[in-house]
Amino acid sequence: MSNELVIYYSLNNHVRKIVADMPEPKVEITTVKKISKNKVWQMISLGFLVKSNKKLAINELDDIGLEQYDVIHFVTPIWAGKVALPLQAFLEKYPIKNKQVKLTMSCGGGVGESKEAFLKLLDDSNELVAFKVIAGQ
Ligand SMILES: Cc1cc2nc3c(=O)[nH]c(=O)nc-3n(C[C@H](O)[C@H](O)[C@H](O)COP(=O)(O)O)c2cc1C
Questions:
Q1: In angstroms, rounded to a whole number, what is the distance separating the alpha carbons of residues 50 and 28?
Q2: Ligand 1 neighbours (beta carbon < 6 A)
Q3: Which atom of ligand 1 is nearest to the CA of 47?
Q4: Which of 109, 56, 54 is nearest to 78 (CA)?
Q5: pLDDT over threshold 90, residue 101
Q6: Under DSSP, is residue 6 helix (H, G, I), strand (E, B) or coil?
Q7: Residue 108: count of CB within 10 angstroms of its CB
Q8: Ordered domains of the chain (ranges, CATH)
Q9: Residue 136 dihedral angles phi and psi, to the nearest 5°
Q10: E strands of 1-137, at which residues?
Q11: Is 38 a residue whose pLDDT tops 60?
């Protein structure tokens, strides 16, 4: 059986709950700046960042040993029709190559162009082997 690493980001706990049922090992992406819990502020400020292609810095991760894993399973919220900025930042900072990749996205209902945007950030040597949207979150 191939070994799998779950890499996730969660702002408002929906993804955290989804990931709770997944087996270890898991790595959580966190942002350098703390994000307000105010949902209206989140929509306006984070929505603006996504729409204007701005970045959101993430904290360094301890050596996660990506080379040990055959399968990387990303679990992320959708922000403004794209994968949330912290996962975008992760993919830029830690290039993933020659992996089987799974993508699980949590959203309210509008997936937008999030899958396409994710694939653009992923190196061509990877293969997307599973894709799931959990809506109504
Ligand atoms: C800034 C922002 C933008 C969002 N944009 C979308 C969207 O475009 N489509 C959608 O269906 N849900 C959108 N949502 C809702 C989240 O994707 C959804 O609540 C998700 O489950 C949140 O996961 P989390 O609680 O782990 O952070 C947005 C949420 C935030 C904070």
A1: 20
A2: 10-16, 42-43, 46-47, 77-81, 106-110, 112, 137
A3: 1
A4: 109
A5: yes
A6: strand
A7: 11
A8: 4-134 (3.40.50.360)
A9: 80, 20
A10: 4-8, 26-28, 71-79, 82-83, 100-106, 127-134
A11: yes
Distance between CA atoms of residues 102 and 83, nearest Å: 13
Helix H or strand E segment including 88: helix 85-93
Distance 47 CA to ligand 1 centre (A): 10
Q: In the predicted model, what is the mean pLDDT of residues 103-116?
A: 93
pLDDT in tens, 42-88: 999 999 999 999 999 999 998 899 999 999 999 999 999 999 999 99
pLDDT at 1 over 70: no
Burial of 102 (0-12, 13-18, 19+ CB in 10 A): middle
- Taking residues 6-27, report their average pLDDT: 97
